[in-house]
Structure formats: structure tokens, C-alpha cells
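quick q for whoever's on today - can somebody do inverse folding on this one?? i tried earlier but teh output was garbage lol. C-alpha cells:
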């Protein structure tokens, strides 16, 4: 006679429940990062959709955008719109196109102090497959919670770039990754994820500004200049 599953076993078998000693498995709500070693450490095997991801970089221009290009190219190829909110550099169109981004569906928003509000509205609109945000002033706890709530239940990859010092403060984001430059690319340390804590850092080989012609942009090459309109689209 087959054993009847207990109510607890049925609950633990659900895709939206994870155990503390295992990674969460949400295959329907993730995007492959394009880096197999990283995907093996991410719950569901990729960047989460419907949740906020925090990327905590030691500084700009270390190749951090190259980390996201494979996922952004996939979203763009599927017809999705992408938004960059208050980026610290001016995206370089030819390199974006070479990386697989469709420029006619890439929107750049110069938001200034309104970055958190703009990001929330773009996520909540349901019209964007990917929303990446930066801010000259760090987002407070209330803004972070609003972004997480806006992303929940939506098919959107929402990523927020913050200074690495923010790693010391609590955050509602289910995924938080610290980034630093490495000799051959990027060093990644997963400081928060759904499931068991990450036991090791990763070193990924990605293009670095000044070392590879397919870099999207970087502070050294195309810094944001005064006088750029408050909102603009790359075309």
C-alpha cells in the first residue's frame, strides 16, 4: 500500500517553499544569467523575476554591466523592453547592439533624486521585462520595500545597484550579491539568497572596461554630462 503524503510533506514539495538547508527552486520565475557557475548558486538556476535583486559594487566600471548582458540580451530578444534608471554613464549604442540589446526598446531615464519613484513606477507598470536602477543617494528601507512589493508577482527582472557599504544594512531583497574587480573579471560574493547561505565566492571571466571592445559603457569612456534631458531614450 502506498503511503499517503503528510500535509507537511505536501507543503515542502511546493515550488514557492524552500528549506533552510537547500536552495529554493523556482524555475518558472528565473532567467539564466549566462554564467553556468553563477546559475548553479542562484535559486532556480538564474536571476529571479518577480523579486528585487541587489548588486553591491565596490565601484563603477569594473565590468559589472557585462555580468548582466547575457540575461538582458535574452529579454531583449524575446521582445521585452528594458529600462535603465539614473545610470552613472551614458550607454554606448553600438556596443549595446553588439551585445544583443534592441536599442528601440531600451529606455534611459535621468531621474536624479526621483530614482526610487521612477523605478517603482516602471516595475509596477508591467510593461518592462527588465528594470535596472542606480541612485546618487542610497535608497532607504521604505523605498526598498516598495520596490520589492512592486516586483512581486510580475515577470520582470528588477535589479538595483547600491554601494558595497549597504551590505551591512538589512534589506527586503531576496538576492544580494557583492561585486569586486578580479584579475580576470569579477569576484562575486552572494551575501543573501533564498535557502542555505553561499559557502564560497565566485570569480567570473567577464569583459572589463578598456580591455574589451564589447563593453557597454564605463565612467572612463562616457560619463554622464550636465545638461542631458531628465528623461531620454536610446535609439
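ok took a stab at it. sequence:
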Amino acid at each position: 500500500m502506498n503511503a499517503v503524503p503528510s500535509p507537511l510533506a505536501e507543503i515542502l514539495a511546493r515550488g514557492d517553499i524552500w528549506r533552510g538547508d537547500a536552495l529554493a527552486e523556482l524555475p518558472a520565475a528565473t532567467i539564466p544569467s549566462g554564467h553556468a557557475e553563477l546559475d548553479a548558486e542562484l535559486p532556480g538556476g538564474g536571476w529571479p523575476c518577480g523579486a528585487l535583486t541587489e548588486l553591491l559594487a565596490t565601484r563603477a566600471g569594473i565590468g559589472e554591466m557585462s555580468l548582466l548582458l547575457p540575461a538582458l540580451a535574452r529579454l531583449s530578444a524575446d521582445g521585452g523592453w528594458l529600462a535603465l534608471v539614473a545610470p552613472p554613464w551614458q550607454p554606448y549604442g553600438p556596443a549595446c547592439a553588439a551585445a544583443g540589446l534592441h536599442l528601440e526598446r531600451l529606455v534611459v531615464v535621468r531621474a536624479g533624486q526621483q530614482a526610487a519613484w521612477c523605478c517603482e513606477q516602471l516595475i509596477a507598470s508591467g510593461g518592462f521585462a527588465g528594470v535596472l536602477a542606480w541612485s546618487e543617494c542610497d535608497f532607504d528601507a521604505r523605498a526598498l520595500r516598495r520596490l520589492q512589493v512592486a516586483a512581486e508577482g510580475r515577470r520582470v527582472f528588477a535589479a538595483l545597484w547600491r554601494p558595497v557599504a549597504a551590505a551591512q544594512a538589512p534589506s527586503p531583497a531576496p538576492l544580494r550579491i557583492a561585486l569586486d574587480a578580479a584579475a580576470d573579471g569579477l569576484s562575486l560574493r552572494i551575501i543573501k539568497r533564498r535557502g542555505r547561505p553561499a559557502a564560497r565566492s565566485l570569480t567570473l571571466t567577464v569583459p572589463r572596461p578598456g580591455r574589451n571592445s564589447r563593453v557597454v559603457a564605463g565612467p572612463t569612456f562616457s560619463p554622464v554630462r550636465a545638461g542631458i534631458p531628465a528623461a531620454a531614450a536610446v535609439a
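fwiw The first strand starts at residue 30 and ends at 31. also Confidence is low (pLDDT under 50) at residues 217-235. so keep that in mind when u check it
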